[in-house]
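WARN  no MSA supplied for this record, continuing single-sequence
INFO  ligand: uridine-diphosphate-N-acetylglucosamine
INFO  echoing inputs
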Amino acid sequence: MTGHETAVILLAAGKGTRMKSDLPKVLHRLAGKPLVNHALDAAGALGPAHCVVVVGPGMEDVAAAVAPHPTAVQADQRGTADAVLAAREALAGFGGGSDDATVLVLYGDTPMIEAGTLTAMIEARRAGAQVVVLGFRPGDSGEYGRLVLDASGALEAIVEYRDADEGQRDIDLCNSGVMAVSAGHIWDLLDRVGDDNAKGEYYLTDIVALAREQGLACAVVEGEEAEVLGINSRGDLAAAEAVWQQARRARAMADGATLIDPATVWFAHDTQIGRDVTIGPSVFFGSGVTVADGAEIHAFCHLDGVAIGLGASVGPFARLRPGAVIGEAARVGNFVEVKNAVLGAGAKANHLSYVGDAEVGAGANIGAGTITCNYDGFMKHRTEIGEGAFIGSNTALVAPVKVGKGALVGAGSTITKNVPDDAVAVTRGRHTVIEGAAKDYRERKLKEKKAKK
Ligand code: UD1
Ligand code: MG
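INFO  complex generated
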């Protein structure tokens, strides 16, 4: 944001005990992306000069997830004010201690926050408030901090639920936790926060009353509940996922995709869907999937790290894994798995196949039950199938191996050597017919059985 420098502090030092997990809370995933990266990406859209993530001791995995953003370690969990202070050194000299620079505080467990809301908070800072708080009116105010307004409607204080009296608990305007504070005042205000409260913690929220005592202006920007919901338990995580998915499904449809049963389609944070794409019921998108215009994904497909080309047809019951590229108008049918393989334009693998570490030329036809045997127990090897080749049903292609353009492989073959262009390769045993032999056998056996009785 030109003319107004912003630094972001993202608090993620909490252990998240209510998740009952060995994984730090902020690394649990929403739409396939860690919670902490959701908040970080929203903040990143503002183009901040700095972005520091506050972590607890030993949280190297969180540091790795947020890299290259730097982390600051909060030694003890002594409250949100203490957590913000842990980032002070990393931001030394930021904004020259000026009122024209803003420190934006976000929580790592609030993943639905949107860049537009953060921009509105910076605007409120520019309009003259030294402390701007993102408030919201939840359906159930629960134990959120309450925002106390003065007679003029300006923010006077934040009272934590445990410290609030009856009247204050009736306030429905709550603290989301997101704050935008003047770089010229934040550190002085935080230095004055004490721990004389119900939890014996240093509350970030206390800086509002401290700022007002000094005659500084404080303001509230109101956001939607869905945007600020905080994740404290697995139940909260599932609820947030539901909210996220519902919004994403609506966007996919608004952008021109048909979702036959939207409630059963699961997108990832980075799914890209073109126009006139049709998605059947119960389709799951892992991360890294792009679907070009006009493609159809039939029911019950699991897609992960795949590019699906123009007008291609996938499924039902297909599994496309990372590195799969499905060419224009290509077809991948039921019970077909494709991994790290390119299917050229118009190529077909319609039934019961595994195509891994392979290159399939345009227009090639992979018969039912074809397997690329890509793994020898130690290493992976590639299979190349030329344009227009025809692979008969139940063929094992033992990689590394090449089948030339226009070549034909007879059904039931095990191909271990390269097949030249336009050649026929068959590795079946000779077809032998013995006339009447089945009848002779039956009669002989029936006689033996009778003789025993
Ligand atoms: C906080 C707010 C409350 C607000 C609510 C919104 C305070 C005192 N209260 O309460 O007004 O309504 O969020 O969800 O700020 N953290 C640290 N170090 C600490 C403590 C917390 O990094 O020492 C981090 C946590 O990882 C978490 C965030 O700060 O991301 C919030 O902490 P949490 O304990 O969840 O605060 P709440 O009690 O929810
Ligand atoms: Mg919380």
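The mean pLDDT is 96.
INFO  checksum written, moving to next record
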